[in-house]
Design brief:
The chain is built from 16 helices and no strands. By secondary structure, it is mainly alpha-helical. The radius of gyration is 24 Å and the shape is elongated. Helix 12 runs parallel beside helix 14. It has 4 domains: about 90 residues, Tetratricopeptide repeat domain (Serine Threonine Protein Phosphatase 5, Tetratricopeptide repeat, Alpha Horseshoe), CATH 1.25.40; about 70 residues, no CATH class; about 60 residues, no CATH class; about 45 residues, no CATH class.
Length: about 280
């Protein structure tokens, strides 16, 4: 827990000299920590030594769900998706049923490396296996579909999520909101934004920023300004992205005085400009 991996290894070696044999929990604890600290190569080596008994400890342990979850999650975070998929198949062959955490890790990894079909296919497999996705899993797949321009499928998942009794939160709604804006469906984005508060999902600064950027891309600066005023009236504090979005529109449309006015406003409110602000 303190991240002292070298001391853990020393202690593991002492176990053998005292005739105390490491078990799957011993190895699992170390594998989990190695993955958490980014030592994925060492974690994978220890995992394979545990399975094959060919390490310095000469102990064969059947990996459990915790071991597989840790190593698959670590592999996915570092882009080693093929190896993660291999271990995912292996654990099922060993009769260890993947849980929602296992699926979520692999789905997230696939979202970063595939064209959108593999994550959706794995998600559907998850449903077929009777594993109930949580809100995070739904959001990950929906975000991937939105980024690939598959808004109808993303909306279908949103409805499925609601039908299964999982109420989408603001983050989930922001995912769909961003998808609409990326596709230029600004009217649909506005409808979703307006419905959020009525359904108990209060828009946050990210919600405002997404819709404001959508308005600017659609050249609807009056709507963007109105949204900015509404944001302030409702006590949602703008951040540097909010100001940069409006400054960008004003600058591109040669309204430099308005851009400079916003620049002065943001600095007076202790919102620190970034390199993007100055470059714009």
């Amino acid at each position: 827990m303190e991240g002292k991996i070298k001391k853990v290894i020393e202690l593991l070696r002492k176990m053998g000299s005292f005739g105390c044999t490491p078990n799957v929990i011993t190895f699992g604890t170390l594998i989990t920590e190695l993955c958490r600290t980014g030592n994925i190569t060492d974690a994978l080596q220890l995992f394979e030594e545990m399975v094959n008994g060919n390490g310095e400890f000469g102990v064969i342990c059947k990996p459990n769900l915790v071991c597989y979850n840790s190593i698959i999650d670590g592999l996915c975070k570092y882009g080693l998706i093929d190896k993660a998929k291999e271990l995912f198949s292996e654990m099922k062959t060993r009769g260890i049923n993947p849980k929602v955490v296992t699926y979520r890790s692999l789905i997230y990894g696939l979202c970063n490396t595939s064209n959108g079909e593999e994550p959706k296919t794995l998600f559907m497999e998850m449903l077929d296996e009777g594993v109930q996705p949580n809100e995070v899993t739904f959001s990950v797949v929906m975000d991937d579909l939105c980024k690939n321009g598959k808004m109808d499928e993303a909306n279908g998942l949103l409805q499925l999520m609601i039908n299964r009794g999982i109420h989408p939160n603001t983050i989930t709604c922001n995912t769909i909101l961003n998808g609409y804006c990326l596709e230029g469906r600004i009217d649909d984005a506005r409808k979703l934004f307006d419905s959020m508060a009525s359904k108990g999902r209060k828009p946050d600064v990210f919600s405002y920023n997404i819709l404001m950027d959508g308005f600017c891309l659609a050249n609807k600066i009056d709507d963007a300004k109105e949204l900015f005023a509404s944001m302030l009236n409702k006590g949602c504090l703008p951040n540097v992205v909010t100001y940069n979005t409006l400054i960008n529109w004003y600058s591109k449309n040669r309204k430099v005085d308005e851009a400079m006015s916003l620049y002065r406003e943001m600095t007076s409110k202790a919102v620190r400009p970034t390199v993007v602000t100055y470059s714009t």
